[in-house]
Amino acid sequence: MSHTPLSVSEPLRTSFETFYSVTRPRIFRAVALVLDDTDFAADATDEALARAAERWSEVGTYDNPAGWVYRVALNWARSNLRRLTRERGELLFEPGYEQTLPDPELIEEVRRLPRKYRAVVIARFLLDWSVEETAQVLEIPEGTVKTRTSRALARLRAAIEEPR
Amino acid sequence: MKLEQRLRDNLKTAAQALKVPEPDRAPMRVEPSRRHGMWLALGAAAAVLVLAVPALLLSSRGVDPETGGTTAATSPASTVPSTLAPSTAPSSTPGTTVVTDDGLVLGETTAGDNRLVVRASRIDEDPPTAVITLEVIPTGETGPAGEMLVGVPGEFFWNDVIAEGAVCDFSTQEVDGVTEVSVQIVQSASLGCSEPFVFQMIGKELTSSGDPDEAARQFVAAWDHDLSEHMAELAEPAALEQAGDIDLPANPVYSYCEGAAGSTYCTFEIAGGELVIRVRNEPPVLVTEVITFQDEGP
Predict the structure, then answer these.
(1) Which end of chain B is more exposed for a tag (fewer CB within 10 A), N or C?
(2) What ipTM does the predicted assembly reach?
(3) Distance (Å) from the C-alpha of residue B192 to the closest C-alpha of chain A?
């Protein structure tokens, strides 16, 4: 089954150390919001970064190596979710942000979205990736990114009863 | 304020409020651990270690880390990982790890008149993953009389399964004339070993423990990776025919399974809808029906 390549090869853009220090917190936070579990997100992010380290000579040439890490982290999580939920029961999330959010109910509704919708919403609105970038990162068609985005927004809009 | 902007603001606030955990300083691959949480303290030393150790391990096994491959077939085979200890089966003898054109032999043992081989085959995706199989090869024959998937194709990472100690357990045990075979493979550095995959062997016939959920996931993963032989092992002909009429979108995502009337129905998310796999609960546990549902328009 063919997938859209994430990017073409180019010279290394930065050292792995620099990439790591910038990317780990950013991708961890994004993955935590997708998975709804901070411990699991830390493992997934670190697993993905470990793989990035192993093949940095290639990953470091990508247009969006952070996107590669995001995708590998979510794929790793998907592969291990069933086992982890069986071992630990319900997944855990320790937000700690309720007091600071302008619209806590909006984030609660994001958490109720199916995971595949959340992965797109987080990529688009937290990581600020374009439709094209999100499609490449998640290896789904651009049309699917648009559909999931519009459906997610429709669900959020309906849930919070935003005046149109 | 528009919903998109509200969403952006709230997500960024929520993300900033999340405390980023400190990475564990234990380097991966040197000693895959079973504990939760892991490695990768930043710093040149750790990065160098991570980069250097896998290459060292791979070279010691005669495997090309880039191709994963078969080019090292002429290299002397390394020994079976020390954790490969079929202690429960006096008749079992660990063999050696060798690379062949058919993949990498992770472990080998004997049970009665048969050889049992755990083999990894590479799936070229990004990052590369593996299909793990258990084969039964009768004495005096070169090809397998039967084989079963170990776990789900594509859910093991190639670089993990070719590392030293990837086979956590490969043991056999005689129970009432049936040889029970247990295989555990390293799943990842932080999660450690997989759960045991247990098979029964009578004569040279191999059967799995018969988990319908696992069978559905194996079937869909085999389908996703175009592994038609494995699909055929897991499904009845009618279900295979149904699958043949469907152009499966990339990356089906397992969602859930539920049982009803002697069958288990497992749902996978696919682009534009859902895929439902029906599996018979009683042996032989096989996929009996393949159904797709299209999403309704927005």
Answers:
(1) C
(2) 0.85
(3) 11
